[in-house]
Amino acid sequence: MSDCLFCKIIEGEIPSTMVYRDEQTYAFRDINPGAPTHILIVPTKHIDSVNFMINDDEPLIGHLFTVAKQIAAQEGLAEKGYRLVVNTNAEAGQTVFHIHLHLLGGRQLLKMG
Ligand code: AMP
Ligand code: ZN
After folding, report:
1. Is 37 inside any structural domain?
2. Is position 34 within any domain?
3. Residue 21 sits in which domain range?
4. I want to staple 100 with a disulfide (CB 3.0 to 4.6 A). Which of 17, 42, 70, 71 is the partner?
5. What is the number of the ligand 1 atom nearest to the C-alpha of 38?
6. Could you tell me if residue 112 is inside a domain?
7. Would the CB of 73 count as within 6 Å of ligand 1?
8. Mean pLDDT of 18-26
């Protein structure tokens, strides 16, 4: 996906502050943080959004949560608490169409909904 911002970040064509990397996953700090800790966790495989997930992606998306849990612990958030968010399409405010998990924490987060 040559035109995808997050694919370029994963490839190192656009700089980012790396937090974690493995074969399937890349995690980096959000450039416009909404909380003291705001990390994006993305699969190295390009998937536009949750709407484009296929059944075979289930282990991969599950792995994003395992990575999120590890990063939350590293960031000292495991006990205090944190929020994992996946925005899908316009009304949810999705701006980058490469599926990603937001990890937010480090302050009291307002209730959603
Ligand atoms: P979403 O609105 O759910 O699609 O989230 C996209 C996120 O990507 C936003 O929180 C942006 O601040 C973040 N973002 C955009 N460009 C960059 C970048 N170059 N490096 C890090 N984060 C970025
Ligand atoms: Zn991509």
Report:
1. yes
2. yes
3. 5-105
4. 42
5. 10
6. no
7. no
8. 98
Closest ligand, as measured to the CA of 6: 2
Contacting residues for 29 by C-beta, under 8 A, at least 6 apart: 16, 17, 19, 38, 39, 40
For ligand 1, the distance from its centroid to the CA atom of residue 31, given in whole angstroms, is 6
Inter-residue contact 105 to 82 (CB < 8 Å):
yes
Local confidence band at 113 (pLDDT 50, 70, 90 cut-offs):
confident
- Output the CA 66–ligand 1 centroid distance in Å: 21
Euclidean distance between CA atoms 35 and 30, whole angstroms: 10
Whether residue 100 lies in the annotated active site: yes
Q: Which of 46, 63, 98, 100 is catalytic?
A: 100
Query: What's the CATH number where 33 sits?
Result: 3.30.428.10
pLDDT at 106: 98
Per-residue pLDDT tens digits for 78-94: 999 999 999 999 999 99
Residue 62: pLDDT band by 50, 70, 90 thresholds?
very high
Number of compact structural domains in the chain: 1
1 pLDDT more than 80:
no
